[in-house]
Amino acid sequence: MQTSDKKVIFSAVKPTGALTLGSYAGALKNWIAMQDDYNCYYCVADLHSITVRLSPADFRRNTSEMLAMYLALGIRPEKCTLFLQSHVSAHAELAWVLNCNTLFGEARRMTQFKEKSKRDPENVNVGLFDYPVLMAADILLYQAEIVPVGEDQKQHVELARNIAQRFNSRYSPTFVLPEPVLPRSGAKIYGLQDPVKKMSKSNDNPNDCVYLSDDADTVMRKFKAAVTDSDARVAYDKANKPGISNLLTIYSVFADVPVSAAEKQFADGGYARFKQCVGEAVVEFLRPVQAEYRKIAADKAYLQSVLKTGAEKAAYAARKTLSKVYRKVGFLEKA
Ligand code: AQP
């Protein structure tokens, strides 16, 4: 059970598509491991998703499927607060206050904004630019000390910390300063076809990415086709052997062994056997998760009840912080 003396954690994934091996390695694996020892707030970040164009039907499906997948992976609503971001209005409300305490220049430096603007120049909307400020609101509302994220989100957590520091010194101590926590292995999983680019759920090439919902044949086919090199030596060398290094990292995350042990295990075999073993480790991991997913996804009443309880718990904690912020800024209290 949660107790108030536990450190607070916040983390989220946005339902722009189905969860990938990268989402699990970078974030969800840590979320699950931390549930017992921390007061965890985990959410499906649906507000963040509308910075990209999604049909309402796909978006709704992505959101429900992501929630069911969180539960199937082992996120326990009895141990943490699990909710949808749009169900707690304080996220958008705090974001506005934080917007007015964020410098345009610091938001403009965000790497993800620059990369996403380049990838889709037709849709560089203000929401995309403002995304890290909403993310700061997500974290600061719950007074989170720890934010388990993958490498690409580290810069956003650092921005949240800077915004909190600025607010605290402008008004008075209000927010806990958050720290990003990265996994030891798998902080950045790369694409199987392009192993120098992050594996992303919204990638146009489905072969670059393994989804947690992929069936065994698809997983094996994608690993078999993974880009490697002509060196025929299984060794971790990110600069010169990005494909093999990425596969070693994936094996380490899903077989739960250190990369150095995986390197030794496959040192004497060829690439074909190695790829086969990486695929099998992922398939073995996914088998029980997908069986659980099918049960949970079919139980709409259960999913609704998880969201209702989660929204109530999250809204209560969020409102406490937002009221404090409103008072400090100087908004008159509602009679
Ligand atoms: N490939 C990855 N390796 C390690 N960690 C990853 N994460 C995402 N991809 C990888 C981590 O998962 C968390 C949730 O990320 P998100 O979905 O909210 O945002 P994202 O980082 O933009 O993820 P995607 O898959 O790349 O989404 P799209 O395609 O919509 O932009 C974060 O902690 C992230 O670091």
Based on the model shown, name its key terms.
mainly alpha, 54% helix, two-stranded parallel ribbon, 5 strands, binds adenosine-5'-tetraphosphate, 335 residues, globular
* Portion in strands: 5-15%
What compounds sit in this structure?
adenosine-5'-tetraphosphate
Largest sheet: 3 strands, parallel
Helical/strand content category: mainly alpha
The helical percent reads 40-55%
Query: Ends: how far apart?
Result: 36 Å
Total number of helices? 13
Mean of residue pLDDT? 96
**Shape, principal axes of CA atoms:** globular
Total E-strand runs? 5
Describe the structure.
The chain is mainly alpha-helical and 335 residues long. It contains 13 helices and 5 strands. The protein has helices at 21-34, 46-49, 56-73, 90-99, 104-108, 111-119, 126-141, 154-170, 216-224, 242-255, 259-266, 271-298, 300-329; strands at 8-13, 39-44, 81-84, 146-148, 179-181. Strands 1-2-3 form a 3-stranded parallel sheet. Helix 1 (21-34) links the parallel strand 1 and strand 2 (39-44). Helix 7 (126-141) crosses helix 8 (154-170) and helix 10 (242-255) crosses helix 11 (259-266). The protein is globular, with a radius of gyration of 21 Å. The model has no long low-confidence stretch (mean pLDDT 96). The structure holds adenosine-5'-tetraphosphate. The site of adenosine-5'-tetraphosphate has 22 residues, from helix 1.
